[in-house]
Every structure is written in C-alpha cells, then in structure tokens.
Design a protein that fits this description.
heterotrimer; A mainly alpha (537); B mainly alpha (215); C alpha+beta (318); A: mainly alpha; Cytochrome C Oxidase, Chain A; 0% strand; B: 215 residues; mainly alpha; Four Helix Bundle (Hemerythrin (Met), subunit A); 6 helices; 77% helix
Chain lengths: 537, 215, 318
Amino acid sequence: MSTPAATRKHYLNADFSLKSWLLTTDHKRIALLYLFSVLVFFSLGAVFAAIMRLNLLTPQGDLVQAETYNKLFTMHGLIMIFFFLIPSIPAVLGNFLIPIMIGARDVAFPRLNLASWYIFVLGGLFTISAALSGGVDTGWTFYTPFSSIYSTSHVALTVAGIFVVGFSSILTGLNFMVTIHTMRAPGMTWFRMPLFIWSMYATSLIFILGTPVLAISLVLIGVERLLHLGIFDPRLGGDPLLFQHLFWFYSHPAVYVMILPGMGVVSEIIPCFARKKIFGYHFIAFSSLAIAVIGFLVWGHHMFVSGQSVYAGMAFSALSFLVAVPSAIKVFNWTATLYGGAVSFDTPMLYAFGFIGLFTIGGLTGLFLATLGMDIHVHDTYFVIAHFHYIMVGSAVMGFLGGLHYWWPKITGKMYPEAWGRVAALIGFIGFNLTFFPQFILGYLGMPRRYHMYPPEFQTLNVLSTAGASILGVGYLLPLLYLLWSLRYAPAAGANPWGATGLEWQTPSPPPTENFEQVPVVGEEPYTYPTMEAEVV
Amino acid sequence: MSESAIALAHQFEDLEQQHRAGWLGMWIFLATEVMFFGGMFAGYALYRTLYPAAFAEGSRQLEIAWGATNTLVLICSSLTMAMAVHQAEVGRRGRLIGYLVGTMALGVMFLGIKGIEYAHKFEHHLVPGSGFEFPAPFARNAQIFFSFYFAMTGMHALHMLVGLGLLTALLIRAWQNEFTPGHHAAVEITGLYWHFVDIVWIFLFPLLYLIERHR
Amino acid sequence: MWRDLPLFPPQASTFAVREDALFFYLVAVTVVFVALIFGLILYFAIRYRRRTPEQRARHVPEPMGLEIAWSVIPFGFMVVMFVWGAWLFFYAYNPPAGGIEIAVVAKQWMWKVQHPEGRREINQLHIPVGVPVKLTMTSEDVIHSFFVPAFRIKRDVLPGRYTSIWFDATQIGSYHLFCAQYCGTQHAGMTGEVVVMSQPDYERWLQGGGADTTAPAAAGEALFRGLGCASCHAADRPGQAPSLAGVFGRPVQLSGGKTVTADEAYVRESILTPQAKLVAGYGPIMPTFKGLLTEEQLLDLIAYIKSLQPPAGPQAKP
C-alpha cells in the first residue's frame, strides 16, 4: 500500500505490448478491452440519435430522406441495445469486479472470457459492415413479414451480426455463473456476497436462458429471407405473430439485463456514501432473482394490440404488474438506507440518486403500458420511447457512469476531478429530463414511433426534446474528457479512497494481476460500517 | 504424490474446484442448448397444431428405415461414449482410445446416413425453396414441415460435427496419456455433451419421422 | 393559444372518455410515488448529510413489517390498474351489436376504406357521430396498425387475417389517422383523417361518390357468378357443395367433428384453403382461389355471403 503505483507491479504495467493486451486472459484487462469497444459503439449510436433528433426539429423531417431516417433509428436501436447497454456494466464492471469481489484470482474460464470479447467484436464488425453497405431499415425489432420478405436492406448481414454477438453474452453469462458458484473465497457464503454479485448472477441467468431463443429467431429470419420458406409468410401458411413471440421471449428479459447490473451498482454506491449498511439486504438480493425469473413470463405485453388473444393479454398484464413489485422493493430499500446515514454527495452518489429518481419515473410509466386498456392508446407512440429511455438512459447509463466513477480509482489508480464529476452529473440529469419528458406528452397526443415527419402541432415539443438532447450530449462528453485527463494528470488514488467495505477495496489500486497477494478469508457480513452506537460503547 | 498429467489452471485453488467448475460450465451450456432447440420445437409445435394433415403427409415422405437406423447408431454411440468414460475412470488408455474411436465412427456413420437422406430429399424436390414440389392440397404447409425438418436436423448435425471435433481433441489427449483415474474431467464433460446431442435426436426422431405412422 | 402547443389530444369517442379517466388515475399514482421518493431522498440526504469526515451512521432496525407494507401497498394500487385496464380492454374489443360495419384494407402506404353502401375512400374515413362503427381490417402486405388518437383506439392490421376494432364517435370534426406499426419507407406518410359528421350529413355524403360506388355485396355477387361459385354452391344441388344461404354467423359442423362459427375469417379461409375446414358430409373437391382474388374482392364476397338470407320454410337446413 505504501509502494507507489509507478514502481509497484500491477495489472496495467505488467506488460505494455499490444500482444499482451490482445491475447490477455486477465479479466481486468478484458474489462478494459470491452470498455473501449462499448464506448466506440456508444458514440456511433449517439451520432445516429443526434441526426434523428435534428431531423425531428421540423414537421417535414426532411433533413434526411425517409429511408435514411428509418435506417438511422434501426441502427441506433441495434447498436445501443446489443453493443452498448447489454454488455456495458456486465462486460466492463462485471468482468473487472466479480473475481475481486468474491476473492478469486480470475473468472472460471479466462480464455473463454477473451473469446467472448473477440466474438463481440466480430458481431460488431458484421453489423458495422451492414451499416456501411447501406444499413438496415426494419427497426431493431425485425418484425415479419417486413423484415423477412419486403425489406430491401441488409437484413441477413445484420441478423448475422446480432446472432454472433449473442454468443458473447451467453459465454459471459456462463463464465460469471460458474465463477460465482465455485470460486468464492473461504467464508464468503451466498449471503455475504455484495449485492452487485447478486445482480450479476441474476443477469447471467437471463443471458443463458434468453439469448439462445433470440439466436433461433434471428436464424429463422435469415433462413426465411434467403430460402423463402414461409415460416412467417401468411401467403405460404406462416404466421407473422410467431416471430413476435419468439423475439420478445428474449427481448423482454433483455431489458432486465440492461437494468439489473445498474441496480447492483446502486446497491454498492449507496451504502458507501451513506456510510451505512444497506437496508433490506436479503430483500434486494431476492428481488434481483425475482425480476430475472418473472421477467421471462411477461413478453406478451409487447403484443396487446397485435392480434394476440385477449385472455393471453390478461395473463401477461397481471404478470407484468407482478414483476414491478421487486423493483419497487429495491427503490424503497435504497431510500430507507439513507435514513440515519452519513450522506455525502460525491459524484457516484449523485449518479445513484439520478438512477433512483429516473428509474422511479420510468418504472411507473411502465405500469401505464402494462395496463391493458391504457396500452391500446399509447402503444407504439412516443410514450413508449420516453418510458424505455427513462430506464435505459436515465437509469442504466447513469448506473454505468456512476459505477465507472466509483471504481475509477480502483481500475486506474487515479482519482477523477470531483468538481467536474458533479457538474457533469447535474448537466446530464437536466439534459436527460428535457429530452425525454416532452416525449411522454407527445406520446399521449398520439405521435407514433419511427416517424421522420409529423403533424405541425407537435413541433414545439419536438424542438424542446432536441434542445435537451444537446445538453445531454454535453453531460456525456464531459466525463469522457475529464476521465481521460485524469489518467495522465490526476493524483494517484489509494487502495480505498472512499473508505468503503468490500474485498475490492482491500487490494491496491490498481490491483496486482493475481488480484490478491493472499487468498482473503471473509468473516463478516457485507456493508458493515461502524455505527454511532458502537462508538458510544 | 503421483504426478497429475492435468495441469491446475492458475485461477483455481485446487483440481477439485477446477473439476466442479468444468461440470457446472457444461451443464449451464447444455441449458442454453435446450433453450436454443426449444425455440425450434415451439415453432414446430405451433405449425403441427395448425396443419396436422400436411405435417403427417410430409412425415410420410421421410425415410423411416434410415431414421430408425440412425437412432440405433446414436444410442450405440452413447453406449460407447459411456464405456469410454468408464475406461478413463479405471485408467485403461488402450480401451479408452478404442471406445472414443468407436463413438466417432458411429457419429460419422450417423452423418453419412443423414447425408444420404438429404440427397434423396434433394432428388425428390422436397427441399424448401423455389424447387419444392409436393402434391396438392398440402404443398404450402408441407413446405413448412420440411423447413423445420431441415432446420432442426441441420442444427442437430452441426452439433454432431462439433461433438466430433471435441472427440478428436479427446483422442489426441488420450493418445498423449493425459488422463488418469483421478483426473479425466474432460472425458466426462465431453460425454455429457455427446449424450445431450443424442437426447435431442431421441426427441427429433418421433416428432419428425413418426407422425401418424400408426395409421 | 394552445394550438401550437397542444398538451392533450381531443376527446372524441366514448372510449376516449373512459381511457382518460384511467390515465388520470395512473398519472395521480405516478405523481404521488415520484413525489414520495424524490421527497424522501432529498429530505434524508439533507437531514442526514455528513457534517464531519468521521461522522458515522446510526444503527437503524429493519422491521419486516415495513418491507411487507411497501410491497403490498403499491401492489394494491397495481391491482386496481390491472382490473380497470382489463375491463377497459374488453370494452375496447367487444363491439356492440348493430352499428355500421366498414372494411379497411391497408397496404404500403395507404388505407383503403370500403363502406357497405358502396362508397370507397383512400386515407379518409367518413363516419356519423353517435353511431358505433366496426372496422374489419386486413393488410395486403406487412403489418400495419390503425390508430386514431382522438378516439384512443389502436389495432394492428395483419396480412392473411382479419382484425377488428370499433368506436363510437362523440364529436363532429376531423381527426388524425396514423399507421402505428412500422411498415417501411413511407410509414410516416401513411396517415389520413377520420371525418366525423352529423348523421344527416353522413347520409348525404353516402349518396355522393361518382361512378365507382358499387356496393360490396353487389360486387361480391358478380364475382360469385363470374368465378363459377354459383355452379356448385347452388341452393338446389346440396350434394356437391353446402348451400350458403344464411350460413354467415351460424355454427358449421366440420368433418373432424368440431363445430366452428362461419365468421369473416372462416369464409376467407374456405375460399383460399378449402380443405382446411371441410364441412361434414362433403368431399375436398373445392378448388382454391388463392392468387386469383385481391383482399378487397375477398371482402366483397364476404359481404355478399353475409347478405344471403336463409331459405324460408321447414326444409331450411344449413
């Protein structure tokens, strides 16, 4: 701990060659490989979003042609979902932290871990080449028969890319589950694990059980397109609705993949910056599992107006309300943790607050969509877009940024500039709400999704939304700049700058390649911060 | 202490942990395979319910003799695989290699027979696509049957190929005397995979070949 | 003043009134819980802020009752949402008897509307106020969705199937019609208007229309004879093909023993894939008309068959 990072050997300076990075099996380096890749994809997806919002400044929407716009929203969705949101926290923070948090030297299958990254990159290359050769215009949901028969864009190449990247998720999930089951340090029972690990476990469950169904749905579209088999073509006896069932069977649980890790991050940040044990540890742990399991049973709520049976609709609606309960439990437990705490407002905590607030709004508006009669009106409108962006951007991205800031000193050995961190978090929060709140109103007014042009009376709200987007962009650009700056110019961070509990803070910053000098032995519950009462005694 | 030919990977504390991780990893992988094939089974179930007559007619075109032979071949290959695992447990390298070769031979035989069946389908214009021909009134929906036939048996065959690759790797390692009675996890785990691929076929055979055969 | 910044859509149907009531309940619950969480977080964060670097937290008990309370109470609100929403859903998809039935065929990228009296429209739907209107819809190509925000109704329109929706307009005026399921390049252009008129105005409008206003039932009859349907489905030759007089809406016994109702979907399927549901006592000799008929022609034939009265007298037999 007193050895300066410059002379001490750790995972970053163990070897500087390119080969040592590209052939690494060190989970920490693999996490950084993923960090670099997901940021590239995020930028691409963000550029597409920017062009879309600029196009929507005017009702005629003639900044780009209709077909171009359709390709932009498709690619924006595909890239953000499959190449940013799904991998972000699991592949970056999960990879880095899971072994360290449970006291292991690495994940169970390190070479498989590296292979997962290469598979991710391969899938990304397929998709980018589809984009470069003209793009795809089916929407990220690939509904048939448009995607399987009518679209003239590069559907097969794109579904191949998504098919490939799915294996990256499956293998990562497999690796995490085996690691968590078999490699916990002595004394680390299941209920002594940090809540981040619980949420990563639940996420991995979804990875392994849901992603294969997506794989087969994509294979079927590809096959239908190339061989005209008729699986989804009503003229050949097929059923277009079958595709929707297969697709949403994965894609609904996928959204829980995109939020559970962020919830895990929040569960780590709040106890640290309230300096208090998390309220309701067991409830939060079990809610993660409940969300993962129940999340597999609600896919039909995307199909209430699709021609699905009314009785199926009722079952899916009821289950969708059920899955909201564990999320509500988490929000209340996080809030209760603050009671009687010693709360500080460092950047990670600001992001955590932002997460909770925006997740509350996003989650409650989800109830509008779960309500059968209500969904009839708002389905496929900007109301849905606002809802899912509140969860995926307002919560998931904030969770990612919060986690990145919280563990930045551990990962890099440097402390980011705190003032800039707080400013960026605030700008992001304001920009986000300005971008997406007007979209709730637009949705109820009736503005449909995936429209490049719209009736003139919707213009003011669209302009407000675009203005917000530019502010949100600043909120994202700032961290990119000052985090990079910190790598070179910031002061070194110690092993535990936040004074937090958890095994990751018991090892130097940055950690040595084998994570720990000696295998740690765990003797206490997580989040045991000393209390005032203990002081008196 | 006898030298173990299997190295302890650096991330594990001991061989027992390594073995446990390998087992769990394979079981979880098989769970993903169940979900993968499950999607196709779900689609099959839907269309069979919608078009029972067309599916029965399509099924009648499949060569039940070859299919049944293949079923027998795969069951035998699971037997030889189980025997291989046993030989690894008791440390008989020669018989282990023999049984591995036997399993592979049966696997290749399975694929060969599948190849013959596919060739026949091609000759009789039963491959979905522009060349598909089938007597009316079932033409349209029989094509869906054959789509599932090729998709499901094709995926299965692909998994068999991967299995053969895994067995080849095992064969090489066995030849190099890597397995001992205490440490032969790779053989057991590959056996698990092979049995799974066999079980998938046990489901595929009746669902595809035996529709309404009692009539 | 609000013309350029509308914040709420016009409320122009009986369903819209009910929908908005549920909406306001949902908004109220959302506002309450958002205010509660935001308020608590703000309050706790400030009240329990760290005043000195060494400050510690208090020990706080974690009563199980609290966990149960904040699980059960929100769930209670949700049960109301579920029940109210389900009830409203049934209302939305169960058209009342009587009223006007209009056929809609969607295609990339337009809405084709056929009134039973004969008038056709493209991208417009004229209807009378205060009368339930039921739409039977199908698509010629991809999935579309018929969406009228002012009525708060929406339903996907599928190829190869009929879906239906109904509404009872309460306000005269002109309202947006949108396609709400992405359907290709001009998805955003597949819009139109629903024009709600007073009943006398509507009657007058129906009389207009120029040359091509053959009522669908009449067009269907012409097709029925022209395609040779009449030669088998003749009332006086029951052995060859079932008589269609009065068959629509009645139960039909199939050759497998099952009974189905002869609705639009059944008639369409019988024309396109006759062997799919064979009527008991008849052989599979009807040829298929797949590829020979457009969706509009199918709807015309259905309209004709709907119009056939059951034969009078005791020998009437389906």
